[in-house]
Design brief:
Radius of gyration of chain B: 21 Å
Number of strands of chain B: 10
Distance between the termini of chain B: 49 Å
Oligomer: heterodimer
Shape of chain B: globular
Strand order of the largest sheet of chain B: 1-4-5-8
Order of helices and strands of chain A: EEEHEHEHEHEEEEHEH
CATH superfamily of the largest domain in chain A: HUPs
Strand order of the largest sheet of chain A: 9-8-7-10-6-1-4-5-11
Distance between the termini of chain A: 55 Å
């Protein structure tokens, strides 16, 4: 089974994001990075699928050269090889141009199953996985929380507002992974040593113009300080008053 | 509540540049595991006086048992600097956690690898690396700590067997072990034996009522006419230098471990003092707390340089036990000083186990004593620089 996990480098959860000088990008200087949370689920599911069905897992990303750090981690967790579609202005790419570049590489590599995270935790668009399936002409199952894969297809569960939906699908397929699908493993020390011998290819991505261009980024307004209206049951009327007329939430 | 989830390691001189990519990956892998899996339960185990045995399979999966052991015997084949970083990260969690791993790797797996027969290596090392077997190391006796050469435990050869008698004290993991590396006096000098703990005459009662290393099992070993085959004897090690060779390995890891405990305390005190408002401004904005933080940052940074240099020397095959003495002595004393100052900086909160500093402080009172006391390492360094031994 040929398996590809598409992943993205994002700022760490604790990172204090600063806006760049152009007012339309994030200042990457000194920003610590990590694999997007949902992409870690994609790597885990890809490795588990390979462990069950055999084959090979390739981790694919579009990013800068130094995101080899995140890819090494994926290799240490059991992926077989990795490819960076090298683009210094990767962060400015829109979802469409990113998906087109990934799709072109996936077509070249060939794939039965492509795993993506449900959404990247930085831009929060949840678009690349679905666009990718459309460009590739693959089936697509989004927000998967349970997966039974066979060499020819499988069934998946998705959590919806109405309840749990179970779907069947053929391969080739793009699966976007949601929280609960698996518990990603830690990179073990043997895996880290084994990853040293695995290759990370760097290739130029397909050049695609952005259709959507970020014009401006503004940080959310700082939260107002809290106010204690009183103590005990006697303070309830003042609290109701504040919630009604000040916060206007009642 | 302690702030371990947002831990930021002090790196004043940018020493991360001095580590290779895979050394940093090893450090970060262990760091993440400790943050996510160990720290949330550390306080509870410290209070209850228990070690979280349920985490042993995870530690094995992570690969921290004997990680420098060659891959063919179940290890990860890591270098000594990576091993040091592992100890640093484990002790950032708790000295008891690092002790568990030090004993398994440096004091049980290492002597089997260094002094064992091929059959002993094939039998024991993969099982120890995978955590299926836990080991302990029996050298110290009730009356012989700094002077292990005076040991009273004996092994007498009878045909193809040995009969062991004696008592060992302060043995980490004794009660939960399946195999014990027991050092005993024989007619040919001190020798090591791999004693299975189920052997008749062997018992390992736990030593309770400790205020230090509470999240670690400490035991007495009692050997009463314990009979083992000659195949249980470690053929390659003879004389006191054999167990001391093991201790050099473990002490090297402890030098890095001290850094981990110090990083944890320093970070907690730094975060606390920036958030804690006293007299209308953060505690960290006053001169006395700043002096404390500046002194600690300097001491920690110097200890980092010491550990790193000894680690590189070890990987180049150029280190000596006296190098390790300097690193263990300095870094553990540094960590204990840092823990005491940080405990003080947290005020009353510093005595609560909701914060880490008090736990580290209590633990380090053991770490400064075990694996060569601070004073004995002083004499080791003294001998190195003067050429004159001053032990007696």
């Amino acid at each position: 089974m040929k398996i590809i996990a598409c992943v993205k480098r994002v700022p760490t959860t604790e990172a204090q994001v600063k806006i760049g000088a152009d007012g339309a990008s994030i200042d990457g200087a000194g920003l610590e990075s990590m694999l997007s949370f949902y992409d870690d689920l994609a790597i885990e599911e890809a490795v588990r699928s390979r462990e069950k069905h055999g084959g090979e897992v390739t981790v694919l990303t579009l990013g800068p050269s130094d995101c080899s750090k995140e890819l090494r981690e994926a290799l240490a967790k059991g992926a077989d090889k990795a490819t960076i579609l090298l683009d210094p202005s990767w962060a400015a790419r829109d979802a469409r141009s990113t998906a087109k570049a990934l799709a072109a590489k996936i077509q070249e590599l060939g794939a039965d199953v492509v795993f993506c995270g449900r959404v990247a935790t930085d831009r929060d668009q949840a678009s690349v996985g679905t666009l990718l399936s459309s460009y590739l002409g693959f089936a697509c199952v989004t927000d998967v929380v349970k997966l039974e894969l066979t060499p020819t297809g499988g069934t998946a569960q998705r959590e919806t507002e109405a309840g749990i939906e179970t779907v069947s699908f053929p391969v080739p397929v793009v699966i976007t992974c949601d929280k609960g699908l698996n518990e990603p493993r830690f990179a073990g020390l043997k895996g880290i040593m084994a990853a040293k011998k695995k290759t990370i290819d760097e290739v130029a991505p397909l050049a695609v113009e952005n259709a959507v261009v970020v014009q401006k980024i503004e940080l959310p307004a700082a939260r107002k300080a809290g106010r204690i209206v009183g103590e005990g049951a006697g303070a309830v009327p003042a609290l109701m008053e504040a919630l009604r007329n000040e916060a206007k939430v009642l | 509540m302690g702030s371990f989830a947002n831990f930021r390691q002090l790196d004043y001189l940018g020493l991360d540049d001095q580590f290779s990519e895979d050394e940093l990956m090893v450090r970060d892998a262990v760091r993440s595991w400790v943050t996510e899996r160990y720290l949330p339960i550390a306080m509870e185990h410290f209070e209850n006086g228990t070690f979280p045995m349920e985490l042993v399979p995870e530690l094995a999966e992570l690969g921290v048992f004997g990680p420098t052991t060659p891959v063919e015997y179940g290890g990860a084949g890591l270098n000594s600097v990576a091993y040091g970083l592992i100890c640093q990260e484990l002790e950032r969690g708790d000295s008891g956690l690092r002790s568990f791993v030090s004993v398994q790797g440096s004091l049980v797996m290492w002597p089997i690898f260094a002094y064992g027969s091929e059959e002993q290596k094939r039998r024991w090392l993969p099982q120890l690396a995978s955590g299926k077997v836990i080991g302990c190391f029996g050298l110290t006796e009730p009356d012989f700590g700094s002077n292990p050469g005076g040991m009273l435990t004996t092994a007498v050869k009878k045909g193809d067997e040995w009969v062991l008698n004696g008592r060992k004290m302060w043995i980490t993991n004794g009660t939960c072990s399946q195999v014990s590396v027991v050092w005993a006096r024989t007619s040919e000098g001190i020798r090591g034996f791999l004693v299975e703990t189920g052997t008749p005459g062997f018992s390992a009662p736990e030593q309770k009522h400790k205020f230090s290393l509470r999240a670690s099992i400490t035991s007495e070993l009692v050997l009463q006419d314990v009979v083992v085959k000659d195949s249980a004897r470690l053929p390659g090690g003879i004389g006191l230098k054999a167990p001391l060779g093991c201790l050099t390995q473990a002490r090297y890891g402890i030098a890095w471990g001290g850094l981990g405990a110090a990083f944890a305390c320093f970070d907690e005190a730094l975060q606390y003092s920036k958030q804690r408002i006293v007299f209308d401004k953060p505690l960290a904005g006053f001169q006395i707390p700043q002096k404390k933080l500046a002194d600690m940052a300097t001491q920690i940074t110097m200890a980092q340089l010491l550990a790193l240099r000894v680690g590189r020397l070890k990987d180049e095959g150029k280190y000596t036990p006296s190098h390790v003495s300097m690193a263990k002595r300095n870094n553990v004393a540094m960590a204990l000083d840092v823990a005491r100052v940080c405990r003080d900086m947290l005020g009353a909160n510093g005595i609560s186990l909701e914060y880490q500093v008090g736990r580290h402080l209590c633990n380090l009172e053991s770490v400064i004593t075990y694996e060569g006391t601070h004073d004995i390492h002083t004499l080791a360094i003294g001998q190195e620089v003067t050429g004159l031994p001053a032990y007696r």
